Amino acid sequence: MMQILAVLKTFIYLVSSSIFLPVLLLLSLLVIYMLVYTGHFFRLWIYRRRLHSGNPDLPSAVISGQIQACLPEHVVSVISRLSELDDPHRQVRVVNLLRDNEHALWQSLDRLKLIIRIGPGLGLIGTLIPMGTGLAALGQGDLTQLGQDLVVAFTTTVVGMSLGLLAYVFFTVQRRWVEQDIKAVELAAELLCSPNPRYPAVLDREAARP
Q1: Contact, 199 vs 191, CB < 8 A?
Q2: Measured between alpha carbons, how far is residue 137 from residues 13, 79, 130 in Å?
């Protein structure tokens, strides 16, 4: 029984030690990714701020066809596809396109959601593994090794938590952008596909179709 317990302890220790290097590698890769993503995020933020600063009323922009001036390019693309739909099953195609667009927009946030969870988790794993070796070194009186292990342990904690917090900030802001884009596409679909006498320009465009 004691031999089996010793074998299991050795096995778990080897597993724990073997994943320490991949954990450090993944944390390093996530740091690089978030640095690149930070630049991408601020580029999007500046782009959307410029669109927002010159925004006309959205219904008026959809009716007049001047949506390029107030909406992001991917939203303009979806609205253009909506305006081109003209067949007996148009309503079904519109609903399908709206759902596909919504799914794609939410899916674009999946990486940030993963980093929110993975970053702190990797930081915790990277903390506990060197803490074990540090305590073993303390038992042998090796304070130098203990100090080195504690530095690595607390550093991985800081990096992992920072990644999670930064990803959460980006996710919160971009979730609001996604909600705005979905709202804009749904409004455009209603204006373009539901004839209403309050929107004569839309009706004229519908009547002009062959």
Answers
A1: yes
A2: 15, 64, 10
